[in-house]
Amino acid sequence: MTALCAMTGLNRAGFYRSRLPRQGMPVEMAVRDEMQKIALASPSYGYRRIAAELQRRNFDVNHKRVLRLMREDNLLCVRRRAFVITTDSRHALPLYPNLARDIEPTGVNQLWVADITYIRLREEFVYLSVVLDVYSRRVIGWALGRTLAGELTISALRMALASRRPSAGLVHHSDRGVQYASHDYTALLQDHEVIISMSRKGNPYDNAACESFMKTLKYDEVHRNEYRDFDDALASISQFLEVVYNQQRLHSALGYRPPAEFEKGLQ
Known about the structure:
Layout: H1 2-8, H2 12-19, H3 26-41, H4 47-56, H5 63-72, E1 111-120, E2 125-133, E3 138-145, H6 150-164, E4 171-174, H7 178-181, H8 183-191, E5 195-198, H9 208-220, H10 230-248, H11 259-266
Parallel strand pairs: 1-4, 4-5
Antiparallel strand pairs: 1-2, 2-3
């Protein structure tokens, strides 16, 4: 080695130093540190959302760099693709055509979507009903209950109607579940001059916006917690919906802004 260094004019100590792995630059280490914090707080975030969040935190990075760093740090999330169907549409109640698939909303209170999901506690299951505004992706109504009784969905709808006070012509879309087809639920919609739309039979993709939200809820909130009881679940889910999801979580469809911030920009 001494002879080789002498032949090439290299310093022997310098040659060995060049063989050592380079330490990360301070800026890159700061990016990695912040990136890992974001990935821990929002495990369902992909590299594009994390890049957007880093940019909001004044880091000069693009999505390609973030993808490389996430791949190196094993932070790329693995998503399950399948939808879970939990709707009971075996009833003789009136059904309505799917109007939502032909609507491209240009503002809030034009198209709402609704759905129900189950949440497992230590000793029981509870059920969450939500109503979302498709244009802003904001949760505008929700209710948590111990049963799938019709009052659960009605409570969520009442919250949405009270908070938004929509004008006539709003389209409300849901699956064909008995809760949404019930007389009490459809009468409440009709009393507020809301147009009723329902998914096709056995097709959860017709309500994809709500299915996507439910997946986010499970990844970012439910699967990360073990709720002690109903009150614990209620407090935690309320915090997630009202603060984390509506106020903080970035949405690619909104230009990587949270729903509340997006709506504020419309005023």
